[in-house]
Amino acid sequence: AGRSRSPFVAGLVAVCCLAVACCVATVAFLPAPCSSGHTGRRQALSALAAYAPLLSAAGPRAAVAEEEESPRLALYRGKATGLRASAEWYLFTLGDVVRKGSTLKPTDECAVGLCPEAQALARVRTALTAGGTARGGVQALAQVDLNLVLPMTQMANMDVFDPDASDDSRVQVTEFEGAVRQLADGIQRNPLDGNAALLLYAESLKKLNKFFSSANEALGVKADEDRYLPQLPLGQAELEASEYWKLERQAYDAAQDPIAQFQERNAFGSKELRQDLKRFPGATLLLR
Fold first, then answer.
1. What is the pLDDT of residues 18-69, one digit of tens each?
2. At what angle do helices 71-88 and 194-219 cross, to 10 degrees?
3. CB contact set of 210 (below 8 Å; sequence gap of 6+)
4. Could you tell me the CA-to-CA distances from 277 to 254, 263, 268, 271 in Å, in that order?
5. Beta-carbon contacts of residue 255 (< 8 Å; ≥ 6 apart)
6. Where are the alpha helices (DSSP H) in 30-137?
7. Can you tell me whether residue 133 is helix, strand or coil?
């Protein structure tokens, strides 16, 4: 019976010895007691700093959580995405109307401003000036205010920039508003001077680009991020020289095409799925 117990007793003794060794090692690594509370705090912080890499390696979820986007930055990202789409409206839709009216000269015969070029400039001024009275007696905002000035103002006041950059961005919003006002007033004073309107429109694009550039710089945003606000081309020649803006123009025109919109609403399956099926002859017949 004594022989049968000996392996069990030997194992038990080995476990006890291992436990004692672990306790001794733990005590050896503990900071020595001290008389000063500040010294003890410094030692504790030093020990925590020494073990920080191990804690980071053991807890990747905590590290990922720190890198997650804050709610304020997420809201800014949404505003930036909407502002980029509105900037394309200002560049393409409104810009086309400005360019249509730019061929009009004060010496041209345009009875009471009824020629197509003068009507185009009148539509531009309508988009830039406030409308009638909205509900509650408040003046309705102009289309450019809703699409551009309002989101720009909100982004400048979201406290995502440093104080100096926030102040600069608010000034830049005011400068853009002033450029838009000059364009509207210029069309009102000279409704038959299309070239003057085109120059004032280009000046407003410069002010918009200034705000975009400052916002990108303040947050260190790169061109491949969805928060990035791209520089708008100041003229048709600059647009046609840019592959990026030519592709954006094609995508914008396709999105604005009423026939394409109707087909998209009534199509079976997602657009990505239909694009993938185009690689297989006859497969698209299944989606008709």
1. 554 554 444 444 444 444 444 443 444 344 444 433 333 444 433 333 346 7
2. 160
3. 172, 175, 176
4. 20, 17, 12, 10
5. 261
6. 37-58, 60-67, 71-88, 94-101, 116-128
7. strand
The one-letter code for the residue type at 152 is: M
> What pTM does this model have?
0.67
* 148 closest CA partner among 103, 83, 80: 83
Tokens of 59: 């807890």
Between vectors from CA 45 to CA 44 and to CA 51, what angle results, nearest 5°?
A: 90
For 199, the enclosing helix (H) or strand (E) is: helix 194-219
**Contact status, residue 228 vs residue 216, Cβ threshold 8 Å:** yes
Entry field: residues in the chain:
288
Residue with the two structure tokens 């280009």: 202
Q: Sign (positive/negative) of CA torsion 191, 195, 198, 200?
A: negative
The position carrying tokens 């390696």 is 57
Residue 268, CB half-sphere, CA atoms under 13 Å: how many?
7
Residues with pLDDT less than 70, the chain = 1-68, 111-112, 131-139, 260-288
Q: What token pair was written down for 215?
A: 């916002």
Exposed, middle or buried: residue 95 (CB in 10 Å: 0-12, 13-18, 19+)? buried
CB–CB of 232/145 below 8 Å? no
Under 8 Å CB-to-CB from 228, ≥6 apart: which residues? 80, 216, 221, 222
